[in-house]
């Protein structure tokens, strides 16, 4: 067999489809050279293939910036080296190489966890590698040894079971069991938060430089010193195994280090498509190999690569400042990012995007989105308040199918099934053009592969950006003027419109480079070259005409305003504005649209009227546009367009509404759209599909969307990828809203070859509640809901479940601060931040979701440019981050104290000051949902009688009342949280299919629990007695807080004299001598001296001798005390027991420390017998290893060299409240046992878990 060796390499990164390859062959000098493309993405890897030099030998990647703030390091701590060493923030000694030049001698220090710089997949890979290499071998050996030791002890004690086990033998077994238990616990709770690197920044007299201590030993000579990337092109990987390349920038005179890493490989792939250059393999080149690149990372690694307003605004500021600060103008922005927004008519980010295009002359190109195939699924951007951004859809050609996807058979070129479709919700085109949406090209080095196939409109956008770089390269080489507006018009007017392709996916057609270039060259001097025509339609000032609000049976007239806007209008000569005038001819090919024939336009808004007569339009979608041609040069294409889209829905008015389609043929990428006006009285729908050919099955996308005003297309959406065959019915259900047009799309996936025929149907069901969202107030008692009958008889079985409790957090601190120079919009618009701090405590483990509800679900459309929250534990370790889309960010938290820091940004300080009391909602997921009871009558609800389990709601105008009873106290106690309200869902349908989808939000407002009044004694105290008691308690409370030891001793003496029997005096003195936050643990680097220890012992002894332990044991051994003053006696005994336990624990821990220390001759040293005696006495009253007794139990295990028991207690204490002191003691105990692997893990990662300050935004 002959092997065909002609491999279609050129189609791996397609360029033929748009004519880019032909253009570069024809004009080799116009290959993008002289242009700069900014990549707004997840970061570009300078080590990836093809991203080193341009085709004319210049540096390819000339700037790298992390605009998200995720790579920021606070380096405000300044030191001078002492004997060539610095004290790193991790605690390590850093040795400064003598070769470093630092004229000032100042070193700016910070620290950064490596995992904060790693993409998620790299982090997962390294955790696995580190565990297999550094943990598993030693840990398995330690566990095996500990298990053998325990088995030997058990065997020995089994042999001697006839004799009584001594206390020493029991402790020996307890120690062996503890070691096995602790080792198993360590394995189960293994948590590698990664290494932490000290960061050193200094100025060498010429530039700022930085070094990360990747040795983790302070050996800076073995680490790479980097200069700022824009000046040096320096970059290096954090380690040989991770291959994550990073570079640095320095801000604020050395006080802020910006480490530029990568949050995914997406941006590298995008950059490679646009402009990769392989000198030795030109067939692998990107579209514009001569273009230079600037990487502006807008993806935040803290949010799993989600873009933030902060990152986008900083990126735009960089674009605005680039010509002045960096010496090069950014010509093109490629942004393969975007989200679904609720509306596009306003929004802080959109306003700045428009400014970048209008004022700074940048061509902005963006991905249209991957949310198709339903209509109106275009992302933001390009859908912003103006039509100046080029939105690109994704196209796949026959050659791409063969070379990239290895399909058995080529198909005609087509849009990808998932590519987002226009129009925008406000009627604009949405998708401007389409371009190849897949490529096999370079990816980041950390993937450990050289190239990869990725697809999406994310890949189509950089292809278009590369094509525009070719156009601008040619225009610059010929010295011809252009503007973003003339470039966009040229692309629109020269694109290849393919009749067989979906008009809403291809926009104006497939991009054609050569024709666009000819258009730009020939018409470079037209009067509208630097003019954008803004279209405003109707009272909503929409960007087009979009009619989709029911049956269209009446003509509609729209007032359309056309207003010219000049590029960089503030700097345009008045004469140019005065001279601007054009005579335009208006044309439209649709007979159902009427419009004026002519429009004379000048530098003023002109108003025209367009009449749309949808009568006679068949059910479906109808699209056209009114085109405006320059009468002097009509051949160059429309100057502007007014898009018109009309949706004429099916009306299902039968008693059983159903749309049925039989025998419909589907080839690859065949799309069937149906628009249905959903009747008011239904609430859910069912789609049923079945194939007709037994031997075939088809891969289908089912996409159903209902649009609501000022709401994203995802608000009411169903999207599913399914396999359909003749073997069985494929059935899906989804919720619908009555009175709103529903689009139902059945699309055969583009890569699913062959033809298949289907029968499918859409059925409508359900009944309508009088209110879709139910809010019930506990104090209101019984809550009534009314269900209204649907078009069919429905069986109703209401189920109400509470799934979470929500607390309202108020800020404990609020600050409005000016940000640094990175956050100043030219020429001098300072951006401010509002920094809010919230604290909360969890009494047990919960899954929680913070939600800044005022700003939720608002990013591009928000009037504030950014919001970001970070959640920290009590040791300042970052646990989670989140932004506007709170539903994405759920975090499991253990019992403890937590802090949320919340940042909101805007350039208007007064707007931020209005939000200084902004609450945050904290949702706690309940372990088990709570059911709220529903009844069929108010009387049954009142007495908790027979519940409503089933009822028939017949057709017609019938109403079924449902009565919801308030939650009883036992269920409220079961929830066990002090939330402000509860939330869950309510479902009405009994149908198994319907109840899965037809649910509604249910909110239950709690009332503040009543405060129980304390019972007063029969013999009430006089005011004088109350005063004296309050004064005493105040003095006692301050005794533990005093810093001055002499003052504390003096106060202690006075209180002992005045209140000799008041145990709280001694307890407070013990807390002063050794506060909870300053307790000494084994292995401490700063032990208490013998004098302090003996003083602690003396005060503890005063408590012990004051308590009658026999009387105490008798009291707590009494089952029932019937004495009249039993309550008062119990309070006294409880206080005595608490004080005694604290005193015994402190006394015993002092004994242990005296036993372990080297003492002067005049201090008696306790014996192990003395220590055991105190321990056994303590165990008579408490066996809890809590924070009160835990210190002594740890020391007791330590002096017996029972380090397993010691670790067991330390682990439990750390679970209650982790601290650095506890961890240091844990590491010390691990080392005593020879468990170096676990000690190393904790030691190396401790700086990440106990950082000195909160992580910066």
TrEMBL record:
Q: Which reaction does it catalyse?
A: Release of an N-terminal tripeptide from a polypeptide
**Domain Tripeptidyl peptidase II C-terminal stretches:** 1015-1077
A GO molecular function assigned to this protein is: aminopeptidase activity
Which residues lie in coiled coils?
none
Q: Which UniProt keywords apply?
A: Aminopeptidase, Hydrolase, Protease, Serine protease
Q: Which residues form the Peptidase S8/S53 domain?
A: 32-509
GO BP: proteolysis
Q: Which GO terms describe its cellular component?
A: cytosol
Q: What are the positions of the active site? A: 41 (charge relay system), 266 (charge relay system), 458 (charge relay system)
Matches recorded under InterPro entries: Peptidase_S8/S53_dom (IPR000209), Peptidase_S8/S53_dom_sf (IPR036852), Peptidase_S8_His-AS (IPR022398), Peptidase_S8_Ser-AS (IPR023828), Peptidase_S8_subtilisin-like (IPR050131), Peptidase_S8_subtilisin-rel (IPR015500), TPP_II_domain (IPR034051), TPPII_C_art (IPR022232)
- EC identifiers of the protein: 3.4.14.10
Q: Which residues form the Tripeptidyl peptidase II second Ig-like domain?
A: 790-974
Report the Gene3D superfamilies cross-referenced here. 1.25.40.710, 2.60.40.3170, 6.10.250.3080, Peptidase S8/S53 domain (3.40.50.200)
All residue ranges annotated as the Tripeptidyl-peptidase II first Ig-like domain in the record: 531-647
> Which of the seven top EC classes does this enzyme belong to?
hydrolase
- Give all residue intervals belonging to the Tripeptidyl-peptidase II galactose-binding domain: 666-754
Which family does the entry's similarity section mention?
A: Belongs to the peptidase S8 family.
Protein name from the UniProt record: Tripeptidyl-peptidase 2
| Organism in which the protein naturally occurs | Cuerna arida
């Amino acid at each position: 067999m002959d092997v065909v060796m002609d491999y279609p390499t050129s189609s791996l990164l397609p360029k033929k489809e748009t004519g880019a390859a032909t253009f570069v062959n024809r004009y080799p000098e116009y290959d993008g050279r002289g242009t700069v493309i900014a990549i707004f993405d997840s970061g570009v890897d300078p080590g990836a293939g093809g991203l080193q030099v341009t085709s004319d030998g210049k540096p390819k990647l000339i700037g790298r910036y992390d605009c998200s703030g995720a790579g920021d390091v606070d380096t405000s701590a300044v030191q001078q080296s002492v004997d060539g060493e610095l004290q790193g923030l991790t605690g390590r000694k850093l040795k400064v190489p003598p070769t470093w030049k630092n004229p000032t001698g100042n070193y700016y220090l910070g620290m950064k966890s490596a995992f904060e710089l790693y993409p998620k997949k790299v982090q997962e890979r390294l955790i696995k590698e580190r565990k297999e290499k550094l943990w598993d071998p030693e840990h398995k050996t330690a566990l095996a040894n500990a298990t053998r030791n325990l088995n030997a002890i058990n065997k020995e004690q089994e042999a001697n079971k006839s004799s009584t086990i001594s206390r020493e033998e029991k402790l020996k077994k307890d120690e062996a069991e503890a070691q096995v238990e602790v080792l198993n616990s360590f394995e189960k709770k293994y948590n590698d938060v990664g290494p932490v690197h000290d960061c050193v920044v200094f100025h060498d007299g010429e530039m700022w430089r930085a070094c990360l201590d990747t040795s983790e030993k302070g050996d800076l000579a073995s680490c790479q010193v980097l200069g700022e990337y824009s000046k040096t092109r320096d970059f290096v990987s954090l380690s040989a195994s991770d291959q994550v390349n990073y570079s640095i920038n320095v801000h604020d005179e050395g006080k802020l280090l910006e480490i530029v890493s990568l949050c995914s490989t997406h941006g590298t792939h995008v950059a490679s498509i646009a402009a990769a250059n392989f000198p030795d393999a030109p067939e692998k080149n990107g579209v514009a190999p001569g273009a230079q690149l600037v990487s502006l990372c807008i993806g935040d690694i803290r949010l799993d690569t989600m873009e933030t307003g902060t990152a986008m605004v900083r990126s735009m500021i960089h674009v605005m400042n680039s010509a002045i600060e960096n010496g090069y103008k950014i010509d093109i922005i490629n942004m393969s990012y975007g989200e679904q927004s609720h509306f596009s008519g306003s929004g802080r980010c959109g306003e700045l995007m428009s400014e970048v295009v209008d004022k700074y002359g940048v061509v902005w190109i963006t991905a249209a989105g991957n949310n198709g195939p339903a209509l109106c699924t275009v992302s933001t951007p390009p859908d912003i308040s103006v039509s100046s951004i080029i939105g690109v859809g994704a196209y796949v050609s026959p050659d791409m199918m063969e070379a990239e996807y290895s399909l058995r058979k080529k198909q005609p070129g087509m849009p990808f099934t998932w590519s987002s479709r226009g129009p925008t919700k406000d009627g604009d085109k949405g998708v401007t053009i389409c371009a190849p949406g897949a490529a096999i090209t370079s990816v980041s080095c950390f993937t450990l592969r050289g190239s990869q196939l990725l697809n999406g409109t994310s890949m189509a956008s950089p292809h278009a950006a590369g094509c525009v770089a070719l156009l601008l390269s040619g225009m610059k080489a010929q010295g011809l003027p252009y503007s973003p507006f003339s470039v966009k018009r040229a692309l629109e007017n020269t694109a290849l419109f393919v009749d067989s392709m979906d008009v809403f996916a291809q926009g104006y057609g497939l991009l054609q480079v050569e024709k666009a270039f000819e258009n730009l060259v020939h018409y470079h001097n037209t009067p509208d070259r630097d003019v954008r025509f803004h279209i405003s339609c109707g009272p909503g000032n929409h960007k087009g005409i979009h009619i989709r609000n029911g049956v269209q049976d009446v003509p509609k007239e729209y007032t359309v305003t056309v207003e010219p806007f000049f590029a960089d209008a503030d700097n345009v000569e008045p004469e140019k504005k005065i001279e601007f005038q054009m005579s335009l001819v208006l044309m439209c090919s649709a007979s159902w649209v009427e419009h004026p024939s002519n429009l004379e336009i000048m530098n003023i808004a002109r108003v025209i009227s367009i009449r749309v007569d949808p009568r006679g339009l068949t059910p479906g979608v109808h699209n056209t546009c009114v085109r405006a041609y320059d009468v002097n040069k009509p051949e160059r294409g429309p100057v502007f367009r007014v898009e018109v889209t009309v949706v004429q829905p099916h009306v299902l008015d039968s008693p059983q509404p159903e749309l049925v389609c039989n025998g419909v043929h589907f080839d690859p990428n065949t799309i069937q759209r149906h628009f249905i006006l959903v009747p008011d009285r239904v609430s859910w729908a069912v789609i049923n599909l079945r194939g007709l050919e037994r031997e075939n099955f088809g891969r289908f996308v089912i996409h159903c969307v209902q649009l609501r005003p000022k709401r994203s297309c995802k608000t009411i959406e169903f999207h599913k990828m399914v396999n359909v065959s003749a073997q069985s019915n494929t059935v899906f259900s989804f919720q619908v809203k009555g009175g709103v047009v529903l689009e139902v799309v059945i699309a055969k996936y583009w890569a699913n070859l062959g033809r298949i025929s289907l029968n499918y149907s859409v059925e409508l069901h359900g009944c309508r509640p009088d209110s879709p969202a139910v809010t019930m107030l506990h104090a209101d008692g019984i809550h009534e809901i009314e269900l209204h009958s649907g078009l069919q008889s429905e069986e109703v079985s209401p189920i109400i479940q509470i799934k979470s409790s929500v607390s309202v957090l108020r800020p404990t601190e609020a600050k409005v601060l000016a940000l640094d120079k990175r956050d100043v919009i030219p020429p001098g618009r300072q951006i401010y931040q509002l920094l809010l701090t919230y604290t909360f405590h969890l009494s047990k483990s919960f899954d929680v979701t913070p939600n800044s509800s005022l700003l939720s679900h608002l990013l591009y459309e928000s009037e504030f440019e950014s919001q970001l929250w970070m959640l920290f534990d009590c040791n300042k370790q970052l646990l989670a981050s989140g932004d506007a889309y709170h539903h994405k960010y759920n975090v499991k938290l253990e019992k403890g104290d937590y802090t949320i820091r919340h940042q909101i940004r805007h350039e208007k300080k007064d707007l931020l000051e209005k939000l200084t009391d902004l609450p945050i909602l904290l949702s706690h997921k309940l372990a088990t949902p709570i059911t709220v009871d529903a009844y069929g009558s108010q009387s049954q609800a009142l007495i908790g009688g027979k519940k409503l389990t089933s009822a028939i709601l017949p057709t017609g105008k019938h109403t079924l009342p449902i009565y919801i009873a308030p939650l009883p106290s036992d269920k409220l106690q079961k929830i066990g949280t002090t939330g402000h309200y509860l939330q869950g869902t309510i479902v009405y349908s009994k149908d198994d299919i319907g109840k899965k989808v037809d649910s509604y939000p249910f909110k239950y407002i709690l009332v503040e629990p009543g405060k129980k009044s304390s019972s007063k004694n029969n013999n009430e105290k006089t005011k004088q007695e109350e005063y004296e008691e309050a004064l005493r308690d105040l003095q006692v409370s301050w005794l533990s807080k005093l810093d001055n030891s002499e003052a504390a001793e003096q106060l202690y003496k006075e209180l002992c004299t005045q209140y000799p029997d008041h145990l709280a005096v001694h307890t407070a003195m013990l807390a002063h001598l050794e506060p909870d936050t300053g307790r000494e643990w084994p292995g401490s680097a700063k032990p208490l001296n013998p004098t302090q220890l003996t003083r602690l012992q003396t005060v503890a002894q005063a408590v012990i001798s004051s308590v009658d332990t026999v009387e105490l044991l008798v009291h707590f051994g009494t089952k029932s005390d019937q004495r009249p003053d039993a309550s008062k006696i119990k309070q006294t005994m409880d206080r005595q027991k608490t004080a005694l336990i604290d005193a015994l624990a402190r006394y015993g821990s002092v004994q242990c420390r005296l036993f372990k220390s080297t003492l002067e001759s005049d201090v008696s040293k306790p014996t192990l017998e003395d220590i055991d005696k105190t321990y056994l006495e303590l165990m008579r009253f408490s066996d809890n290893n809590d924070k009160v007794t835990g210190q002594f139990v740890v020391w007791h295990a330590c002096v017996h060299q029972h380090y397993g028991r010691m670790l067991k207690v330390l682990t439990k204490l750390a679970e209650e409240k982790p601290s650095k002191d506890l961890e240091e003691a844990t590491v010390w105990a691990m080392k005593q046992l020879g468990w170096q692997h676990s000690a190393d893990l904790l030691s190396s990662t401790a700086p990440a878990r106990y950082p000195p300050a909160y992580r910066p935004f």
